[in-house]
């Protein structure tokens, strides 16, 4: 276990150590084959598609740029970082506290449900791979309905447990959030596979920039800046036909 103090300017906890074990596993838990259920959620993007607002690669790139900068950066990414540090400190009470905040800041019922569904699926899977006591405790609390199991919290905890570098864990979280939506948009618009590839490639600098920004943020910076996206998520459950759960 690595000891990294929150607020330190040193964002790397891997100096002089062999990173292979956690690095490959970090890639594995973001692989599309790893069961989190992300393929079933659009987080409101399906509403934009059906309302003919998102029609092509350019629209998709603009949407995802907004999603990273004004949704993930001001909420879930901050939760990932905070959960990471609290897990290192074994501060279970504070982890439950931020889980409650995470649940409350998501205005749309479908968004809350999607976040919890992905988190529960992720927790069920990593529990079979790692017998860490904190993972066991989180699973028991989920089973006893003391927590909802939001994905950003579970992921932050697990990234700390496997000893991943916190900034890289953030970058991978942002990257996988984007690629999951791109894959879903390619199916729903529909778009060509190369349009999806180009959109992700264009957003790579945004992902890196956002991860650097989030490293400077804390719980006081939490905000919900994506009101239009929340409304789109609320409208989603009333769409005539739907490919995705959210």
Key descriptive features of the protein:
246 residues; disordered N terminus; mainly alpha; globular; 11 helices
Short description:
The protein has helices at about 20-30, 45-50, 55-70, 75-90, 90-105, 110-125, 135-145, 150-160, 165-190, 195-215, 225-235. The chain is an all-alpha fold and about 250 residues long.
Explained architecture:
This protein is mainly alpha-helical and 246 residues long. It is 63% helix and 0% strand. α3 packs antiparallel against α9 (166-188), α4 packs parallel to α8 (151-161) and α6 (109-127) packs across α7. The radius of gyration is 17 Å and the shape is globular.
| Beta-strand percentage range | under 5%
Rg computed from alpha carbons, rounded to a whole number of angstroms: 17 Å
Average pLDDT number: 90
Provide the structure class. Answer: mainly alpha
Any idea what the shape is?
Answer: globular
**Biggest beta sheet summary:** none
How would you spell out the order of helices and strands? HHHHHHHHHHH
Measured as a percent range, the helix fraction is: 55-70%
Which ranges are low-confidence, i.e. pLDDT below 50, for 5 or more consecutive residues?
1-5, 8-12
Rounded to the nearest angstrom, the distance between the terminal CA atoms is 37 Å
Total beta strands: 0
Count up the helices: 11
